[in-house]
Amino acid sequence: LPGLSGTSYMTLLWLLNPNNYYHRRNEMMTTDNLDFKHHNYKEMRQLMKVVNEMCPNITRIYNIGKSHQGLKLYAVEISDNPGEHEVGEPEFRYMAGAHGNEVLGRELLLLLMQFMCQEYLAGNSRIKRLIEDTRIHLLPSINPDGYEKAYEVGSELGGWSLGRWTEDGIDINNNFPDLNTLLWEAEDRWKVQKKVPNHHIPIPDWYLSENATVAVETRAVIAWMEKNPFVLGGNLQGGELVVAYPYDMVRSTWKTQEHTPTPDDHVFRWLAYSYASTHRLMTDAWRRVCHTEDFQKEDGTVNGASWHTVAGSKCFPHFYKI
């Protein structure tokens, strides 16, 4: 355009991009005094207490169990009636810190609970509607033992593996029961998929035995899921900048990567894109490729099994963020 420099022209194109307009329209701007820092276990617990004291009518702190080292797995509930399941009101969960040395998810959930409390007090209509219509559970640290181990040494000396696993050496990220294989074996026996119920597959007895290689943290999360009728959840991890949606495990036993959709694939893809499309970088076609993976082919989302197969992963979308 006449009179516009190259930089101004690119800025204009960015402003006219309907996707960017969508980002700006939905972006939550805040001047809240949020606590931007890394929080060890004691500081995390204190911050949760501060949020609860600021918003006692819409928050509740509780724990879902203990870690191998005896640290309580604290969660914060945000709802207009804390501690009460209301019929017809969906229950949602965010959890983070399965790998103890991946800090981002933990801090994002701590920031989220601060943000929602402060915006509720400020009268933000969108936040008030979320809290009144949804019961939200935030579990920022599934593996506090691993975090504390990495925290004590520091990032310069810790390396990528220190604190990643639980105290007894288990990777929580793939420590859940493999229900995919049970479903597919049943479908193969019947040969007609629709005759096989897939809405509730019992956990195998061997997995529930005391001798099974299952972390106490994993058992606590499973008990938490069974106690609360969650309809949706997300797991935040550090690493790639992408939303991974189920299934996480390939159906073909001889493959390590294979697109493996769930019966509700269109719903999961829409949910994944809804998250990625409102993130400033996830759907940016010009951002650098992380390692060798280019997730722009699906606008910052990926079917978990088509990326890399994981048996026994947590059965809901993963939000991987750098």
UniProtKB/TrEMBL annotation:
It comes from the Eukaryota. This is Inactive carboxypeptidase-like protein X2. It comes from Sphaerodactylus townsendi. The lineage of its organism: Eukaryota, Metazoa, Chordata, Craniata, Vertebrata.
